[in-house]
Amino acid sequence: MTKISKNSTVDSTNTNSALSTTEKVSLSLKKRHRKEKRFKRIGLFSVLFGFLLVVTLIGDITSKALPAFHQHWVKLEVNYQASWLNIDESTAQSLSAKQMKTANYRNVLKKSLYQMFPEVSGRKDKRQLAKLFSSNAEFTLKDNLIAAPLLFDKQTQIWVRLDDDVDSYLKEEFPLGEAGLRISQKQAQWVAQLIASERIESRFNFSFFTASDSREPELAGIKGALMGTILTMFVTLLLSFPLGVAGALYLEEFAPKNRFTDFIEININNLAAVPSIVFGLLGLAVIINLFGLPRSAPLVGGIVLTLMTLPTIIIASRAAIKAVPPSIREAALGLGASKMQVTFSHVLPQAMPGIITGAIIGVAQALGETAPLLMIGMVAFIVDVPTSIVDSATVLPVQIFLWADSPERAFLAKTSAAILVLLSLLMVINLSATMLRSKFEKK
Amino acid sequence: MNTFTNKMNMKKTIISLSLVTVALASSFANAQGSNRDTITAVGSSTVYPFSTVVAERFGKNTDFKTPKIESTGTGGGMKLFCASNAINTPDLSNASRRMKKSEFDMCVKNGVTSITEVLVGYDGIVVANSNTSKQMNITRKELFLALAKDVPAQDGSKTLVANPYKLWSDINPALPANKIEVLGPPPTSGTRDAFAELVLEGGCKKFSWIKAIKKQNKAKYKEICHSVREDHAYIEAGENDNLIVQKLSANPKAFGIFGFSFLDQNSDKLQGSIIDGKAPTFDAIADGSYPVSRPLYFYVKNAHVNKVPGILEFLKEFTSEAAMGEEGYLTDKGLIPLGTEKLAKVRQDVLSLSPLVLN
Q1: How far is B81 from chain A (nearest CA, A)?
Q2: What's the complex ipTM?
Q3: For residue B313, what are the CA distances in angstroms to A231, B261, B355?
Q4: Which range marks the domain in which residue A167 is found?
Q5: For residue B15, which residues of chain A lie inside 8 Å, CB to CB?
Q6: Does the global pTM surpass 0.90?
């Protein structure tokens, strides 16, 4: 063979036929390596780009969410004077529960504040002073007295939350004593006074996790929405997983292949593409109006989301079942197992990892839905934490939506914090799916 | 074989469990349906921030459960509210405008004949921009010229032409020489309805020959006065007012349209434009001198008053001086109060549950 010069490639057919396979390969090798390198680089770039986006997203949300995780409290000198409470002093020995419940704590709070700031006078100033503290402060006083009735008619120190405007003011670090956003000069000086006497403290905001929705940002928490999400997802999973797997098994293993099953198959695929709000309309028309299930209940939400998740689970499960090698089925059948036995003891366990992946994708989708829930009344202000699947409830994405729409500035941080919680819930679900999958794969 | 039976059992348990859940739930639901102990409200997202505050305090102050407030929009709420007198329909419906005659008729047709109307207070609509640029002083007529789809021709003839104005200064040289760029709510929003009615129609009426059309052809008049231009000078920014606020601080040349409470909460970043010589302040809206404000209502289904516990007490709390009064906690949330006399009248009407009559 002669040396191949550039010129020789001009007549390619001739030259190629004259070359041995090895030479042809070595000729194109460089080009193919370059191609591979280029593709690798593009791949790496896409992965890094995706990763960068995720990091930016989570970084941005986290930085916005941080203020929501701590909260400023203030120590007040509270005097539970009988006359301020509107309770007769002579009954002090036998204070009844009802008396303590209906006493005038608002008055106690106000009078105690005027005692702490004796220089404040005038209706307008007094109002401004009272606005520094959370509207919940009077209820904190109430709970305190009920927990410790001995404090009746005595002076004590009680920690209460500051109002969200003051809280934001302290978090945004305005120069002390200067007016800030929604804080007047006078109010700022009172706050500075409180800080100077070491009465203000920043604490971890536990109530974000233990309280439920509130219109006061300093009180609002996600417990109600989180419970609602858990209950709704429980119903969704409980209904959609068995139904989806059973449907997929039937269609793949038992159903005769005819026009009817084709028709069903097409419709399942169609169902997967239906916009989710349509399911909400269906839920309103059929589940609530026809069957008379209660509005806003996780049960109804779960059923509606099941309709949405079902096609995803069926499609994924069918793919997983199809991927089980026929040899396994044939071997089992050959040993005399019935079709049912083959399906449940051989096909299903083999297909389980794929089925679980499908179920998780379906549930993760359902976890972020708000549109169908609007129609069935789960976009609502609900304070009581739901305890059963027929209680009124809302879910995390709805809570995020409602907070994002609130005018109070402090809800911005709450919104981001709730998004973080939703994301971590998603991660927990994904992690448990991965663990389940590897457990099934080992078998 | 063993694993097979196990699997079968597992499957059976799961299926029967889910069946039991559904059965249990529906029995619960029936039990609950006939005997509800939580007040439920539906309706406007503009009234939502106010009724939720009252609901929360009501839940804390009394032994009743905290009422459930849904945010469905005024029209959607009316549909649910007027569906029937059955116990599973809502007790209250919030509205950012008065109930329409057609809605009242729908209610009556479905047997909901006795409804009490509660006027809550007022909400101002503002045109605002970033406070890094100049405050605009504009009239409603100029706003109409800036934002309507068709405007009277500049030569003074009584014809309509497609809106030719590109810069604010094209309308009035005293206005800034910036591109007209206004972010506002989409047509589905109650705020948009109110803006069209109060600002655009208010400005449109200033042309006497357009006003004359009203008598001959009401539909045409409405079309002229309520249509918003579609050539990207008015940008529909979605229902979320916080989004508009963010976009305004990013773009100092743009203006936004939203409720007063958002301006109130973001006064460090935004300023409200002066309309017809009045700046949108709390006092100017309360005394009615600021021209763009609308009443907020909610409606009570009288048939439910003795069936669902706490409705009367809730109404009492809502109309109390501490809530709706001049210095009540609702004003802290941005509601413009009614004024002492009017509040007393509203309170009296509401607590006696005097039924609404619409003609």
Answers
A1: 13
A2: 0.78
A3: 32, 27, 18
A4: 70-210
A5: 242, 246
A6: no
